[in-house]
Fold this protein.
Amino acid sequence: MEEIGRVLKPGGHFLYVEHGLSPEENVSRWQDRLNPAWHRFAGGCNINRPISKIVAESSFRVVSDNNAYASGPRLFAFFYQGDAVR
């Protein structure tokens, strides 16, 4: 988030679509268990990051934030989509 804030001009929009931590406790527990292996084999990708929280706690102002499951295994299918302004 710091790097995005550094390169985005004031008033610029940060649009994001990212998979991350499921709100379902049973799914999120498995995401936490599998993340170390997933991170290693998927080029540094993380499946257990709470994207909405990360954006909300940054210096950006959240304009919209939508979360939902896409099709596919629930471990990898919870997506965050949003717009935040610097």
Remarks:
- The radius of gyration is 14 Å.
- Residues 25-41 form the longest helix (17 residues).
